[in-house]
Design a protein that fits this description.
The structure is a single chain. About 30% of the residues lie in helices and about 25% in strands. By secondary structure, it is α/β, with parallel strands linked by helices. The strands form 3 sheets. Strands 1, 2, 3, 4, 5, 16, 17, 18 and 19 form a 9-stranded mixed sheet that branches. Helix 3 packs parallel to helix 4 and helix 7 packs parallel to helix 8. It is globular. It binds N-(aminocarbonyl)-beta-alanine and zinc ion (2 copies). The site of N-(aminocarbonyl)-beta-alanine has 9 residues, from loops.
Length: about 475
């Protein structure tokens, strides 16, 4: 039985901080205590470091066909990059094809990940058409396959968008089967009209992607989604929330006692509309949906994270190389939507959140690991350091310095949105189920060692 002993570190969880050794046997934590003497095959000295649960990124798009191309990271490169950044579990999105059920999508994404992923992984299901048969398959996904959450889109007409009736029916289904609806909340009809109008006026540059997706379109859709969920009597999770308009809707709902939850992403905390004004076609690097917002929104998002109106920070990692972004030269609506971030989530949040005292170290663990695990049926197996949990750990060095750059990152994409940014704090070592997979910036794990994780269903624990 493989054994690993992480010695002399300071264990930090969402609720605790104490000096202890952690023993992992056969992938699971079996003992936490001071001065453990159990012989182990691998002994890690974590003196002076924090021992935290591995990061859980519940919003990634690896090997995803989108916008006339495919996202640049597959399940090998994407998960290697995730591991470098301290993430030990991802939840990626399988996509139902038009005219098909959910099983071909599930099987297709299992094939993409199998033999490639270096960390554990799970799937949400993107539902594009809700026939009676698909409705039955939603039950099967939850009960049999451990795919317990479904993403629906209120934007991208003709690509992903579903109407309110479909949303409501899907919500009623999750009320029966315990699944969770994850909503891309932007008003697709409004946006589509504004995009056509902009193009007619010859407004083709990348910045018009943002200017045709107003914050009100996100706020309106967020409020509507919450109202639909209230009428259906189900919890709701808003993905990639970007602005104060949408946050206000979530806050109102939560103040009313409704089970409304939301994630934001580092790009909305650290980047802004100004990035679209960069010279030439550089703004295309930041074309994603929802778009980057005016800087003042960041203050509201940080407040939302500190005050628990936002519960999770995920990445929405969806990278495209510059030659793919160029599909939209002369027409911003053809720029593939998405940006890289799977590797930089923890270091950015530590540097820009904990070091600036916007959040404390426990809140950091909570929003990058514990809450994602609780929200998506992975807790307490993942998302904490406890006896019985998987030995997914970060030996975190609060003083580790990184200059973020495409020259040194591990994502298979030729730019980094945070190029040149210096951050302090990052993983010195990363363990997945007790195996060291990253050691001082070197990947030492094995391709394909990651396992599919079946997730539990159920209304999220009070978050
Ligand atoms: O621009 C984005 N966000 N691309 C990925 C697809 C999505 O909506 O999450
Ligand atoms: Zn989305
Ligand atoms: Zn996404």
């Amino acid at each position: 039985m493989p054994t690993t002993l992480v010695k002399n570190g300071t264990v930090v969880t969402a609720g605790d901080r104490y000096d202890a050794d952690v023993l992992i046997e056969d992938g699971r934590i079996t003992t936490i205590g001071q001065g453990l003497k159990t012989p182990a095959e691998t002994v890690v000295d974590a003196r002076g470091k924090l021992v935290m649960p591995g990061g859980i990124d519940v919003h990634t798009h690896l090997d995803m066909p989108f916008g006339g191309t495919t996202s640049a990271d597959d399940f090998e490169s994407g998960t290697v990059a995730a591991a470098h950044g301290g993430t030990t579990t991802i939840v990626d999105f399988a996509i139902q094809s038009y005219g098909e059920g959910l099983y071909p999508a599930f099987e297709g994404w299992m094939k993409k990940a199998d033999g490639r992923s270096v960390i554990d992984y799970a799937f949400h299901m993107i539902v594009r058409e809700l026939t009676d048969q698909v409705s039955i398959e939603m039950d099967r996904m939850v009960k049999n396959e451990g795919v317990t959450s479904f993403k629906l889109f209120m934007a991208y007409p003709g690509v992903f968008m579903v109407d309110d009736a479909t949303i409501f029916k899907a919500m009623l289904k999750t009320r029966e089967n315990g699944g969770l609806i994850c909503m891309h909340a932007e008003n697709g009809g409004v946006i589509d009209t504004l995009v056509k109008e902009a193009l007619r006026k010859g407004q083709t540059a990348p910045k018009y992607h943002a200017l045709t997706r107003p914050t009100r379109a996100e706020g309106e859709a967020t409020g509507r989604a919450i109202a639909l969920a209230e009428m259906a009597g189900v919890p709701l999770y808003i993905v990639h929330l970007s602005c104060a308009d949408a946050l206000e809707k979530v806050k109102q709902a939560r103040d009313m006692g409704l089970p409304a939850y939301a994630e934001t992403c580092p790009q909305y905390l650290f980047l802004s509309y100004e990035d679209y004004e960069r010279p030439g076609f550089e703004g295309s690097k930041f074309v994603m949906s929802p778009p980057l917002r005016e800087k003042w929104n960041q203050v509201a998002l940080w407040k939302g994270l500190a005050g628990n109106d936002l519960q999770v920070v995920s990445t929405d990692h969806c990278p495209f190389c510059m030659n793919e972004k160029k599909l939209g030269e002369g027409d911003f609506s053809k720029i593939p939507n998405g940006a890289p971030g799977i590797e930089t989530r923890l270091m950015l949040l530590w540097d820009g959140g904990v070091r600036t005292s916007r959040i404390d170290v426990h809140r950091f663990v909570e929003i990058v690991s514990t809450n994602p695990a609780k929200m998506f049926g992975l807790w307490p197996r993942k998302g904490t350091v406890a006896v019985g949990s998987d030995g997914d750990l970060i030996v975190f060095d609060p003083e580790r310095e990184t200059t973020i750059s495409a020259k040194t990152h591990h994502m298979k994409v030729d730019y980094n949105p945070y190029e040149g940014r210096k951050v302090t704090g990052g993983p010195a070592m990363v363990l997945s189920r007790g195996e060291v997979i990253v050691d001082d910036g070197k990947f030492v794990g094995k391709k394909g060692r990651g396992r599919f994780v079946k997730r539990e269903a159920g209304v999220p624990l009070a978050l």
